[in-house]
Design goal:
It is a single chain. The protein is an alpha+beta fold. It has one domain. It contains 1 helix and 3 strands; from the N terminus they run E-E-E-H. The radius of gyration is 26 Å and the shape is rod-shaped.
């Protein structure tokens, strides 16, 4: 029995009969999928960095307001 079975409807995909995993045998498609995954991960990291930056800006603005309000109250 072969280790790989073709997946019906997609000639690039095979199923590993030992693990049950679906594998893409088209190297170009697999490479493009890895590039898309890497781009999504980088975009997600950039969004997290922006969230952190916004939180830091909010904190700084809050401190500025505290100092400003403190000076006006005296």
């Amino acid at each position: 029995m072969s280790r790989y079975q073709k997946v019906e409807g997609n000639p690039s995909l095979v199923r590993d009969t030992h693990s049950g995993a679906i594998l893409n045998m088209n190297a170009n498609e697999a490479s493009q999928a890895r590039a898309r995954k890497k781009a999504r991960k980088a975009e997600k990291q950039e969004i997290e960095n922006m969230k952190d930056d916004i939180q830091e800006i909010k904190s700084m603005l809050s401190k500025i307001l505290e100092v400003t309000n403190g000076n006006h109250n005296n």
